[in-house]
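During data preparation, a discrete fold description was generated, as reproduced here:
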Amino acid sequence: MPTPILVTFTASDAGSWTINHMTSVVGEGLPAATRLAVTEGAGLPTLADSAWSLSGMTSNLRYTHRSEAAALASIQEGLGRVQATRAALIPIRKSDAWWNLAQDDRRAIMEEQSRHIALGMEFLPAVARRLHHCRDIGGPFDFLTWFEYAPKDADRFEELVQALRRSPEWAFVDREVDIRLSRAG
């Protein structure tokens, strides 16, 4: 397993990503800002005049069978691709009802019913993704999902997001903010 990385997303007037729009999908939104900085590593300062800052840790794959992990590794491309000038940060918090389920019950809802992993694989390699866990470090969300894609793949990305939001798993989401970005020029 790779070493976990602390990643901080800081919204302010500075950063390499321009915030095109933010939408509260479920629950409370986040304060408006114009730019987003993404920093990796422990002990990195957040900007004093930031509108908000969210941190999460990369981690081992959870709820993923070995065959799924191998399939993901064989087709998923990394972040930072030159053509991937669009991004989305989607912070999500799931309800207590979700966390009160046993892990195998969560896996059944996530994959057997909602096809979360299988669905995501249908959009690879066009959409690169990295999941950051923040439930255990005291953040206001459980997950911060970062997506990068080329402008030509924007419609495909929308298909992915809408399909996930229609799934049984999303009945357990009690806070979600959708932040769309473009690489600042």
Q: What stands out?
A: The mean pLDDT is 87. Residues 58-183 form a domain with the Alpha-Beta Plaits fold (CATH 3.30.70.3420). The beta strands are 6-12, 17-26, 35-40, 52-57, 86-94, 128-133, 143-149, 173-183. The first strand starts at residue 6 and ends at 12.
